[in-house]
Structure to design on (220 residues):
């Protein structure tokens, strides 16, 4: 990702660049942006052609769903059915590094995003730049910006020198210091939430939070 792509490099420190990147997303474009974990590649999850491009750019298998980022719980609730367990975890860990898998609420979202599972993975990130971006474009797919099977990237120079092609804009947040990706928990069965990926938020801490609220059995 060199040459012409460098000319599309935008900066989180410039509000006008954030607005421009949001406009690219609204027009159906694909952008790279910083999160509180790794650099992500995103588009409008309602735009089927843009979502398809994400899979092509990453060489990602179609049976792997894409998480979706938003800036507020209200916006998340418009696309995901959030029960008491989901809302409890959202209050405790959002904005932050916990991705929650819930039943899909808005069927207009591209079926590629959910991999036809009827579920959707959602998160409010803690990165201030990303939150400003989401306030302008509402939703973004939030998968890591890398070829599938390769390491996630946390430095803008890794992005610039990567093999990713076909990106419309890159929003630079410099080097990201956190070393762990988000923890992913499936709460579609609220009595038996399942950790799908261990990450920045410890599993034991999550279950203890739910036990304190009386939402799962103490023996779980």
């Amino acid at each position: 990702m060199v040459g012409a792509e460098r000319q599309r490099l935008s900066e989180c420190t410039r509000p006008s660049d954030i607005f421009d990147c949001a406009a690219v997303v609204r027009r159906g474009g694909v952008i790279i942006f910083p999160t509180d974990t790794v650099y992500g590649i995103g588009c409008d999850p309602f735009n089927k052609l843009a979502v398809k491009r994400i899979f092509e750019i990453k060489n990602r298998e179609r049976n792997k769903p894409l998480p979706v980022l938003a800036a507020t719980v209200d916006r998340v609730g418009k696309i995901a059915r959030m029960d008491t367990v989901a809302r409890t975890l959202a209050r405790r860990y959002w904005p932050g590094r916990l991705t929650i898998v819930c039943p899909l609420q808005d069927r207009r979202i591209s079926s590629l995003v959910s991999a036809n599972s009827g579920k959707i993975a959602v998160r409010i990130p803690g990165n201030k730049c990303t939150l400003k971006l989401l306030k302008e474009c509402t939703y973004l797919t939030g998968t890591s910006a890398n070829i599938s099977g390769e390491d996630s990237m946390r430095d803008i120079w890794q992005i610039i020198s990567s093999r990713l092609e076909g990106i419309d804009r890159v929003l630079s947040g410099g080097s990201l210091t956190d070393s762990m990706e988000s923890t992913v928990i499936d709460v579609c069965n609220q009595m038996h939430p399942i950790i799908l990926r261990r990450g920045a938020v410890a599993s034991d801490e999550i279950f203890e939070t739910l036990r304190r609220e009386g939402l799962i059995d103490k023996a779980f």
